[in-house]
Amino acid sequence: MARVTRRRFLSASAAASSALALGAWVNVAPAQESKSPNEKLNLAGVGTTGRAGANLNELAYENLVCMADVDSDKLDQAAVKFSETRKYRDFRDMLEKEGDKIDAVVVGTPDHTHAPAAAMALRMGKHVYCEKPLTHTVVEARTLSTLAKEKKLVTQMGNQIHAGDNYRRVVEAIQGGSIGEVDEVHVWAGAIYTGATFTTNTTAPKNLDWNLWLGPAAERPYSEGVHPFTWRKYWDYGTGSLGDFGCHYMDLPHWALELRGPSSVEASGTPYDPVSCPGYCLAKYEYPARGKFPACKLFWYDSGKQPELLTTLKHSRVKPETWKSGVLFVGSKGMLLSSYGDHFLFPEEKFTAYKAPPQTIAKSLGHHREWTTAIRTGSPTLSNFDYAGALTEAVLLGTVAYRHGSKIEWDSENLKITNAPAAQKWLHKEYRKGWTL
């Protein structure tokens, strides 16, 4: 059994279903006790290796006061670099004991423990950087974005490509009308996360606290191979290819077209398995008109599936059908194909004299430095929890539609599926005793 939740962790439980409409809010107010430009921020790390370790390394110019990891081997590995940093196994212990010594928290655990750690930090008044997808459930995403707004804290989700120069130039091109009005987008990613099964005939290695690793997830015996990475295959801990890469690739159309909550989502794929994420997932999102932008359809493909439209595109410098991942905008005057690092306009002959629009989005300081600078100065973070929360909600609604098995109609303001009450259960999950959002 998990032990009793820490006193501070229990305080002020937020009902994510509160009808707080999401607006275009960003973090612009510096912390009340903001640091001087030359004073280091005091950070706490939740998770220490993998993506968590990469984040801590990127932030090594600040002061890592403490770090927590359920795997003692991983913790010791991180301590080689951060030798002066205090070590914990349970992030709840760490945040309670170190709360008055830290300014901000970096969360890099598996998806199912993102929200409990980030919510605890936000309620304590700490700025938060959290890996993508921001959360494991739709309700968790709304909870974090609401908390960040209420507390006026500086936040950033770890979809690092958002800071890339190419994405910024694509946003400018789309919003500048380079391909006309866009009412269709195709997004695909090649990663495959499926084939998950639980085992019960092995015991957890001594370095791993399996009970803490489970966190809020359902209690079950140790299952071999879940830790440290194949957890992404399991619904209990991850959300498959869509959950992993949606916050990277759907980020670009969400940014360029100012998308928020879809009006409906439908999805299909391999037959539903209550344990394992699907062998592939295809999803169709419909978004209402937004200001100058018309209503839009977004099509998602993963695990090797691609839009047929790619095979019709010809260009002297690229073969679109060979792209394992990408984004294709379809506009009234042409198409734009983008990867992480490059983009191309179609038909090629129409855009031979194309001149990119003026650059209106400044070059990023770096995804992590953008966050730490904002803590000091109040400058914006472009993947803050308001933006990232809405993006994560949309991504996860694709998994909800897939698990439900039919189209869902979405009331974003009220966090409600209006046409299928039975699908509402997929918006959140029951937390194990001792854990809370």
TrEMBL record:
Q: Which InterPro entries match?
A: Gfo/Idh/MocA-like_OxRdtase_N (IPR000683), Gfo/Idh/MocA_oxidrdct_glycsds (IPR050463), Gfo/Idh/MocA_OxRdtase_bact_C (IPR043906), NAD(P)-bd_dom_sf (IPR036291), TAT_signal (IPR006311), TAT_signal_bac_arc (IPR019546)
Q: Which GO terms describe its molecular function?
A: inositol 2-dehydrogenase (NAD+) activity; nucleotide binding
Task: List all membrane-crossing ranges.
Answer: none
| Enzyme class label | oxidoreductase
Cite the entry's keywords alphabetically: Oxidoreductase, Signal
Q: Boundaries of each Gfo/Idh/MocA-like oxidoreductase N-terminal domain copy?
A: 44-158
- In the UniProt record, the signal sequence range is 1-31
A Pfam family found in this protein is GFO_IDH_MocA
The catalytic activity of this protein is classed by the Enzyme Commission as 1.1.1.18
Where is each Gfo/Idh/MocA-like oxidoreductase bacterial type C-terminal domain found?
192-259
Name the record gives this protein: Inositol 2-dehydrogenase
The encoding gene: iolG_3
